Amino acid sequence: MIERAFHGGKRYWGLVAALVALVLPGCWFYADQLREGLGITGMSRDVSWGLYIAQFVFTVGVAASAVMVILPYYLHDYKAFGRITILGEFLAVPAVVASILFVIVDMGRPDRALNLILHPSPRSMMFWDLVALVGYLVMSAVVGFKSFDAERAGSRPPRWIGWLVIVSIPWAFSIHTVTALLFSGLGARPFWLTAIMAPRFLASAFASGPAILVLLALLLRKAARFDVGREPVAKLAEIAAYAMAASIFFAGLEIFTIAYSGIPAHVEHLRYLYLGLDGATAVAPWMWASAALSVASLVMLLVPRVRRSDPALAVACAAVVAGVWIEKGMGTIAGGFVPSPLGRVTEYRPTLPEIAIAIGVYAASAVLLVALYGIVVSVRAARRDVL
User: Fold this and answer.
1) Which residues pair with 277 in a beta bridge?
2) How many CB atoms are closer than 10 A to CB 348?
3) In the chain, N or C: fewer CB atoms in 10 Å?
4) Range 2-386: architecture per CATH
């Protein structure tokens, strides 16, 4: 079945070539980062996490969101998700790969990752994050390939796949919960010191992940004539709408708690994000744009006519992804690091090498996604021809 990833038309290979072309500059700048160190990035003593960890947070959420199609299909026997479930399972695999790659490039030296394996510590949240991510990657790949292989053969998957699916559902929640605990466990960072960090991460993940899956389904329908049906797409749009409503609600709770309590250490972080602090206003326009995109996308997705129109639905889902990407990624990082525990305002701006490396990681993961989706399209096209 893997060999089908190497069979495709001109558009398929053109897309792969374009993605590889984006990977190459990332590799060039990453080699420079290995030689020169993280000094080529915009990070500093005050802001020690940046674009890489922001993308790590976002991609972990995308990986976890696969549970939004797995749970209804396998546990509630929602047949409408039959054709789209494999797309969710195969989206989780490159999303986890991207998450791991973003952590590795953020470490500066990849060999440092071996410390988590050679010297594991149950007291380390990073250790548990590694366990959660690698475990979920293996489960997603096994469930996806075994289930699809059984579908291709016209048989039922092995019984043990059902048990693995049941285990993978809470595991999906755990990978993003552990990610949230990496932040909320740092007591010196008041902005992250909140008990609803994990629910906020999960809500935004369950909005952006289904939205990305809808966009991919619409793209496959147009470019590859692979139609998963309108019902599952509309249902995913509903899920994204409800999750976005929860995400906005949680964000509102945080803003109210911080603003009403008036605790200076908390208020300064919020003021920096939305109004600027001591003349530093680089992040504020992005945060207002994120808020506008999130609210606008929610309003659009709540309208049934929008969910039935492919162009309008694509715009709404793109707004969901953009809003979450800004707020959950750079908003979370900038809000936690600025100002520093000593009150210093040091703004962070990603450098060209950082951006190129991040794009390279996304492009490399996209190559894997294209290959997996190429297998799905090719196999189902072959079955359709046989039938």
Assistant:
1) 280
2) 23
3) C
4) Up-down Bundle (1.20)
